[in-house]
């Protein structure tokens, strides 16, 4: 396989992106890149005061994603990312702006940074969208037990879900492979992995 192939996962919080990234990257021997969650200095504060910390949080995520993709380009490695950079702008930042949690100057500034970054990055060779409903999302959020996520109102997850449904319908940056995240639980049903891997190899 040629070098510098890049697969990105996409999907709502709790869809299973990190789990998929870990298992699939091992199966196809690609280097995994994960979203900066544990070491993100703004994440917990954000869930308690979204308006105060939304711009800080989103710019931190965006910068971390940019660094990951730049690393993939520079090192010419085959890689799997557990979230696409497009979601940062088209889902999370947009949702915060629409709900007045990010001001217009902050959002405009964020969009300028995002648009500039895209000029220096390669597009994915494949985007794998884990399509899940809100009921599944809430089940997995409760299962992993992050208190800051558990206490978030259901309306927040529903708004993200609506944005995801609209975004994926218009996405045109790469081929798309859609996985039913409600049915395809690769922890509970590990036999599904081989089918997914074969489909990925065909698509890239």
UniProtKB/TrEMBL annotation:
Positions annotated to bind ATP: 11-19, 140-144
Ranges for domain Deoxynucleoside kinase: 7-204
Pfam families to which the protein is assigned, alphabetical: dNK
Catalytic residues identified in the record: 82 (proton acceptor)
Residue positions binding substrate: 35, 47, 58, 83, 88, 149
Listed GO MF terms: ATP binding; deoxynucleoside kinase activity
Keywords: ATP-binding, Kinase, Nucleotide-binding, Transferase
Domain of life: Bacteria
InterPro entries, A to Z: DCK/DGK, Deoxyribonucleoside_kinase, DNK_dom, P-loop_NTPase
Protein name as annotated: Deoxyadenosine/deoxycytidine kinase
Species per Swiss-Prot/TrEMBL record: Oceanotoga teriensis
